[in-house]
Amino acid sequence: MGAIQLIRGTRDILPEEAYYWQQVEAVARQILNRAVYQEIRPPIFEQTALFERGIGEATDVVSKEMYTFRDLGDRSITLRPEGTAGVVRAFIEHNLHTQGVKRLWYGGSMFRYERPQAGRQRQFHQIGVELIGSADPRADVEVIAIATDILQTLGLKSLRLDLNSVGNPEERQRYREALVSYLTPYAQELDQDSQERLHRNPIRILDSKDKRTQEITQNAPTILDHLGSESQAHFEKVQQRLTDLGIDYQINPYLVRGLDYYTHTAFEIQSDDLGAQATVCGGGRYDGLVAQLGGPDTPAVGWAIGMERLILLLQKLQAAPTPSPDFYVVSRGDRAEAQALLLAQKLRQSEMKVELDLSGSAFTKQFKRADRSGAVACLVLGDAEAENHTVQLKWMASQQQRTIPQAELLSMTEELRDQIDLLVGPS
Ligand code: ATP
Ligand code: MG
Asked: Which residues line ligand 1 (CB under 6 A)?
């Protein structure tokens, strides 16, 4: 019988790769803490209606990418394809609007039935932020600045920030009509998907990857020509404040986002190093969503970073270090092995990194493994050490070695820490 394999569009994150995930999570957590964003953890599945209403039925995500099923109670359930709808549902359900402006972040798995390729999976992961309760352009800039801070702190370069305004729903409606009249004479020349979108969701045609369609949309009217004075003022303020912060951007009047709920500011951060799946971060303002999901009229802005794509970039930048212990503990003989187990445990409780050899094999074999482990020092317990409650401490680099009482070793962990940090740097 063949071994069972993982499902298409999913991946195992093996230990070497998990290193990068932890790095991203640590940097993001730190930067989000400093901006006083609080973590929120909504469930991974929700009522299907939440996404239909929140994201929009005509979007690709809802119309063809959702993992939807009936549970045993005959409810229609969907694995979340994105994080915002669930966060907003929770915001409404727990009356978080009574707490003033809420700054929230989340992280975790998302599910979309897409064609798998590098940086595009069916189970993928995002970290996202939602700043709910402010219509101020500074809110847009704050979230963008947090995203660029995270990406820059991780060491990413050659990033581009594309910026657009998609206006308010009325402006978008007028733009939609203008776009349809412009595109209709070309209808037969558009790619199949775009022909279908022409009346259902024409703005998404601007996102087409088809060459001929792109040629046609190049001269299409832009949303920016359809903004009223308030939307325009908001967009200009966002640009000014970004410039104040020294954040470079380019205006891309054809940037549209895949989800229906966006209003005003829309943005994407792309990397030239990612090939076809260039976008690492996407976001924007969504002033209508809270009300649309049954809450009080509340403006909001947020983004999501695609973890897999970010990690592909990080892997190009730096190799993951192999983990190595401070001490590798070698022991042989019943009493020595028992004492070694206890010593390892106590050292760990004093914040030392300790790997215990479990083989019971000859000392020479255990020493070889100690070498390969990359440990800074080796602790050796044999019959003689067990008898006297001592241990041999051997520094791997200098091969210096001495025998000391186990109790003394445990009382000098601070000195040992300093000495190890001096040799290899703090871990
Ligand atoms: P794309 O145009 O690449 O499909 P999107 O507009 O559908 O992206 P969003 O819904 O804005 O993506 O999600 C934000 C980010 O999440 C994306 O910029 C990307 O980095 C990541 N992402 C989206 N879908 C996937 C996926 N199927 N696999 C991996 N990452 C994804
Ligand atoms: Mg998509």
From this structure: 82, 112, 114, 119-121, 124, 126, 257-258, 277, 279-282, 304, 306, 308-309
